[in-house]
Amino acid sequence: MRAEERSQAAEPPDDTGAARRRRARPRDDRRAAWLFLIPALAGFVIFYGYPTVRGLWYSLTDYNLLSEPAFVGGENYAQLVRDPQFWHSLGVTVYYVVVNIGSQLLLGLLLAALMHRLTRSVALRAMLLLPWLVPNVTVALLWVWLLDADLGFVNHLLKALGFGTVGFLVSPDWALPTIGLVNTWAYTGYTALLLYAGMLQIPPHLYESAALDGAGELRMFRSVTLPMLRPVLALVLVVSLIGSFQIFDTVAVAAGGRGASSAIRVIYYFIYQHAFQYFHMGYASAAALMLALVLGVLTVVQLRLLRASSSDLA
Amino acid sequence: MRRMPTLGRLPAWAVLIGALVLTIFPFYWMVRTALTPAADLYADSGSLFPSNPTLVNFQRILGLTSQEEARAAGGSGARIDFARYLLNSVVYSGLIATLQTFFCAMAGYAFARLRFPGRELVFGIVIAALMVPPIFTLLPNFVLVKNLDWVNTFAGMVAPSILMTPFAVFFLRQFFLSIPRDVEEAARLDGNGAWGVFWRIVLPMSRGPLITIGLTTTVWAWKDYLWPLLVGREEETRVLTVALGVFLQQSPNTRPDWTGLMAGSTLSVLPVLILLIFLGRRLVQSLNFSGIR
Fold first, then answer.
1. Which residues on chain A are in Cβ contact (under 8 Å) with B139?
2. Interval B122-134: pLDDT, tens
3. B184-209 as b/e, with b when 16 or more CB fall inside 10 Å?
4. Which of A119, B62, B118, B219 is most buried by its number of CB atoms within 10 A?
5. Taking every annotated instance into account, which residue ranges of this chain make up the domain ABC transmembrane type-1 (chain A) (predicted)?
């Protein structure tokens, strides 16, 4: 944009046909621009802007989807902070996020580093990407079946190895970490590929000079790869966090549609239940706004990181 | 680049191959279960190959067998027609991916290259919408669609997604900014208006980023669950993900219809597998930071 303004200012004020046409452009542009923007702006106003305002309004009302919303002021929020279920759901979500992000980033980093050093195979990358392409519903079904207490393959293995069977998704202690690890399975390949792409940007001569200094593999990873990867790592971390906080489908399917047990009732499920099972739209909106505050902060960080790395985009 | 010492490469390869096996095995187990007769499920819960491979599970979830045959093969007898759900999923994700990409390209171009008063401000407001998480707009959007009487229609299912997402606008604008200005100038002098430049010059030059956004949007829509669950519950609009959830609920809690469920799951993987085989390189390259979950 800067460059564009400058080039316009530098244009010689002669009166050839081309220059006239060029000077005639801005007014033309103005009309064309708004025509170009009609669909997107309509979508923005109807499905982003207006609902945001509506959501704020609902959060201040008592609304059951049938009668008109009745204004109750801050009542929903007051109730929310006193609601142990809400805090429990938040706690469950944070626990899930920690398990999921921790394992996903560590494994992703390991895989990326191995790919970076060993092979550039596209086939390998494609296979690692497969779980990410598959709906979370399918992912959940696959693992509910693999982890089934009676017939599941994993428990079959455990039995064969002389261990007892574990009710991975039914036991209150196991269910949450299990779901965290199931989604680690689903997203680690994706994370690894993002990190791998970041590693490809690191100038090879850094490794060459490190090798001349006699650095081993581990040392190179610690002194070259990790520091150079920090911006990409930060972005991947923030993006994964935002996604992780919004886990819903896996939990919904693992619960088999019979209502998630409190051990796995993450915040999205809490909001979903209040909105569409108990029809407390106002209460659900208030809870959604609380979640929005957390995610909003993360998104601001993400946007900053994106702008910083936007030259690498596309 | 310096190569790893040979000895160190062995364990490194072992870890990589281990990860690959762990990635692929669940899919193998899914297909293997789908090919197993329901009656044999207990008998060989641990064998690596199906004892009496059969296609009956696929036939019954595609609605190709009679109710009695389906029940005999281990089904609950509930009517299921995954062929239809598969088609619904294709329509749902196809509509969203093509229209959203196109409209976002138009908007991205206007924000990148057309001068109009308030451009920066409007763009800033659009980008600010990235900060509003989907769940927050989902509740009022559901109310809106319900009030429009669009529940269980394709219009209601795709309306919130076909016109724009802030991320796609942001991403495409970023690319359009990098197109050399001279190319456009030349096209202008040839008598093209803004639309001509966009349609004849900018779009063909941006095939890569457009496919990137189109592909990721397809994947996102293919995986989508919550919105279609709320808006497209009925047969006519039910997509695969929702159908799988409903199928799970319908099968008895104590003995789920695993062979049928795995046949349905296989159907939900097949199209993305085809996508991966034909567009693998493009897809791997087009990973972006959109944060799809």
1. 51, 55, 58, 271, 275, 281, 284-285, 288
2. 999 999 998 888 9
3. beebbeeebebeebbeebbeebbeeb
4. B219
5. 90-302
